[in-house]
C-alpha cells in the first residue's frame, strides 16, 4: 500500500542488532531498544543529500519539510529536554543527517566494538552523543513533544523557564511531532495493561481520583493521541495491537497514589 498508493520507495535492509556479548554476564538486551541502531543505516544512503530519520513510535502532526532547508551540518538533533543530565544530551527521536560512507562505517564499527556503559549496553542515543555531542546542530525541542509531558505536574524543563503557564491544547497546536514516551507503559502498538493505564494516565487538576474530578484536558489529549495512533495503524496498516505485557514490568516497583 505504501508503495502503490503513496509512492514510497521501500528498501529492504539487514537488521543490525546490539550484540548480546556487549552486556554483563547474565544480562539480556532490552527488546525495546535491541534494534534501535538500525537507524545508522540512513548514514549509508549516499544517493541522497539529506535524510530525516524519525523514530517509529511517533505521530507526525505537521509538515517537517523546513528541516531539509537547514544550513549544512553533518547531523542536526534536538536535545532531550526531559533528561536530568547536565549538559542535556541530544535525542535521536529526530535526526537530520547528511549521508556519508565514512560516518556510516564509523557508526557501525562502533556498535560492533562497544562496551557496556554504567552496567548497561550503549544504544543509538549514546553512540550518537559520543560522536556528535560537540558538533551537531541543535534543533529547538519544543516542536517535538513527548506524550509524557501531559503527565507532568511541572513543565519548567519543556519551557526552559518557570514563568510560562502550561496549556495542553496550545502545546499540541504548536507541536509538529509527538513522541510516545510513557515508560514503563509499552509503546503504542502494544495494548495497555489495565492497571498500568490506571497508574500512568495523566491526573486531573481538581479532586483527582474522585468522582468529582475535573480539569482533565491533559488526560483527554493523552488518550486521544494513543487512540489515533492505534486507529491509523489498524485502518491503514491493517495491523492490530499486540497483547499487553504483564504489569508491573519485571524489575519495576510501581506505587499507586
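Sequence proposed for the structure above (257 residues):
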Amino acid at each position: 500500500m505504501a508503495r502503490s498508493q503513496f509512492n514510497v520507495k521501500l528498501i529492504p535492509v539487514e537488521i543490525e542488532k546490539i550484540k548480546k556479548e556487549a552486556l554483563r554476564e547474565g544480562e539480556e538486551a532490552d527488546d525495546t531498544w535491541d534494534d534501535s541502531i538500525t537507524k545508522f543505516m540512513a548514514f549509508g544512503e549516499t544517493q541522497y543529500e539529506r535524510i530525516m530519520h524519525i523514530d517509529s513510535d511517533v505521530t507526525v502532526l505537521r509538515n517537517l519539510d523546513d528541516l531539509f532547508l537547514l544550513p549544512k551540518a553533518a547531523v542536526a538533533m534536538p536535545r532531550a529536554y526531559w533528561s536530568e543530565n547536565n549538559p542535556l544530551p541530544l535525542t535521536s527521536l529526530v535526526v537530520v543527517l547528511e549521508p556519508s560512507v565514512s560516518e556510516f562505517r564509523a557508526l557501525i564499527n562502533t556498535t560492533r566494538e562497544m562496551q557496556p556503559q554504567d552496567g548497561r549496553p550503549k544504544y543509538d542515543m549514546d553512540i550518537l552523543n559520543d560522536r556528535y555531542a560537540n558538533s551537531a546542530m541543535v534543533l529547538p525541542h519544543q516542536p517535538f513533544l513527548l506524550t509524557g509531558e501531559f503527565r507532568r505536574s511541572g513543565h519548567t524543563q519543556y519551557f526552559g523557564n518557570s514563568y510560562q503557564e502550561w496549556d495542553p491544547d496550545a502545546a499540541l497546536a504548536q507541536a509538529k511531532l509527538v513522541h510516545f514516551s510513557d515508560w514503563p507503559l509499552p509503546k503504542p502498538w502494544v495494548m495497555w495493561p489495565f492497571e498500568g493505564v490506571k497508574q500512568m494516565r495523566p491526573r486531573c487538576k481538581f479532586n483527582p481520583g474522585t468522582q468529582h474530578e475535573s480539569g482533565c484536558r491533559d488526560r483527554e489529549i493523552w488518550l486521544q493521541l494513543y487512540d489515533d495512533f492505534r486507529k491509523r495503524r489498524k485502518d491503514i496498516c491493517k495491523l492490530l495491537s499486540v497483547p499487553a505485557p504483564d504489569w508491573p514490568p519485571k524489575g519495576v516497583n510501581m506505587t499507586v497514589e
